[in-house]
Amino acid sequence: MADSGRAQVHIAVAGVSGPLSDALVRSGQIGAQTDAGGHVTLTVPAGQRTIVASKIGFRSDSVTLRLRANTDTALAFTLIEQAASVAPIIVTATRTEQRVEAVPLRVEVLAGEDIGEKNAVRPGDLTQMVAEIPGVRVQSSSPGLGGATLRVQGFRGEYTEFLTDGLSLGSAGDAGFWLVEQPPLDLAQV
User: Fold this and answer.
1) Are residues 124 and 171 located together in one domain of the fold?
2) pLDDT in tens, 20-70
3) Domain coverage including residue 129
4) What are phi and psi of 32, to 5 degrees?
5) Rounded Cα gap, residues 35 and 38, in angstroms
6) From CA 40, how far away is CA 35, in angstroms rounded?
7) Are the beta carbons of 10 and 75 closer than 8 angstroms?
8) Whole-structure pTM value
């Protein structure tokens, strides 16, 4: 059973090379970070408490003790370095795997349900499909004939190349007819 009242716990957190700043020290819902000297003070309810010290790159440590009301207790933790592993994030958009850090711009993908929905609205027109991608604007190049070019991130249409399975569909010299002539029915993703 917990004692009534509160107790103060003065905690020092260090690593092998010295005090650890910004280490997280907590007891239940109560927690704080250590200062530049590796010190922190927690005020917790009296009774049996578990104090945990942790920092990224170090193995966490904990101690369970019984605290009396209106008393001060001093604790010292020495954390041991431990390599932190992070799973890699892979972005697959061009049939080649790349780490997300290596992709120079944001990547937007339309797949499956989105493509089916766009094909149901305008089955023979690729312009409707790409017009709703953020940063892409379809610009009419031949209004009477239906030609269109793509402006990506504000660049003119001649700087945009459209590929299907790695093969070019058209260029700036053909007035953008390739965009409205390309049947989108066999696309898996854009």
Assistant:
1) yes
2) 999 999 998 999 999 999 999 999 999 999 999 999 889 999 999 999 999
3) 107-186
4) -160, 165
5) 5
6) 7
7) yes
8) 0.44
